[in-house]
Amino acid sequence: MHRAIGRSWQARLAEPGWLLLPLRVFLGITFTFAGLQKLADPAYLDPASPTSVQRQLMVFVHTSPIRTLLSPFQPHPGMVGILIALGEIAVGTGTLLGLWARLAAVGGALLSLTFLLTVSWHTWPYYYGSDIVFVVMWLPFTAVGSAGVLSLDAWLDRTRGHDPGRRAWLRHGVTTGSAAAVVLATAGLTAWIGRAVGRHAVPRQSATGSGYFAGGGGTTVARMDEIDQGSAKRFTIAQSGEPAWLVHLPAGGFAAFSAVCTHAGCAVDFSTSDQEFSCPCHGAIYSAASGAVLGGPAPAPLTRLSVRLDGDTVRVL
Ligand code: FES
Predict the structure, then answer these.
(1) Which of 257, 260, 266 to probe ligand 1 with, by most ligand atoms within 8 A of CB?
(2) What is the per-residue pLDDT across 23-35, written as a single tens digit (0 to 9) for each?
């Protein structure tokens, strides 16, 4: 009996569908979770949040190698954000259910490739970014789908054998429509709950105040002795991938700002001699001490980030 079960599992592991099942479950759960998490996060579609899709799109149209493809979508960031979240959920549930599994895998690979060319493009070394791994993980499923294992596609194909023709397609359509209805209802409920629970917790960055924060958290950006007074260090904000500057002020103390120009999203440069940030696109000038606009077309100051001095390190929130 024991030997029979052992042989049966050995035989199954020789089949691609069973061999790839753990990876398929992981991808399905991860993409479904990622989509639901975006919809549940009130900051995701809030233009005032540094992690919003609006803010990220503004950065990517200047930093991504596919910026010409992204530019037409820049005026519609909300739509882009919702489509990305729903796309992730559709890909994830299709993969878990084995419904249109190859199509879901192609969608997953394209989404991951888009994230690789935007969010992860400047990650170095390249293997520190997860999106390149996701692109590769999707590839076998674009060829075999669910390979007939724990799959609605396989079940529908079997029933089609007894009942070919229009009724079989109707059954496939009804199954797909039912799954889509459940997914949309779950997505809507998730978005509603996320906003009801988290509407007071949307993280915003302040352009005013001292710029220092108390308590834990934040990301270590530099050692205090690493940046000379009057100099600055460029870094990347972990949550949004956008560029930022940490300035060691000439009078002492530190200040940090998003490097995203508030005019149209180019990354600003720092000038040690002028103690200013300047935008290479249309000439906006900002104070390196406060982020205030000193000249040019920028409509608002640079977004100020909170700084904490922790021992001999500088942390930014
Ligand atoms: S994008 Fe900076 S001045 Fe236009």
Answers:
(1) 266
(2) 999 999 999 999 9
DSSP calls for 41-70: -TTTT-TTSTTSHHHHHHHHHHH-TTHHHH
Ligand 1 center–CA 297 separation, angstroms: 7
Parent domain of 224: 213-316
pTM of the complete model: 0.67
252 and 182 within one domain: no
Sorted by sequence, the CB contacts under 8 Å of residue 257 that are 6+ apart come out as 244, 245, 247, 277, 286, 291, 302, 303, 304, 305
Are 224 and 247 part of one and the same domain? yes
Are residues 107 and 10 part of one domain?
yes
Measured from the CA of 297, which atom of ligand 1 is nearest?
3
136, pLDDT greater than 80: yes
Looking from the CA of residue 284, the nearest atom of ligand 1 is 3
> According to the model, what pLDDT value does residue 97 have?
95
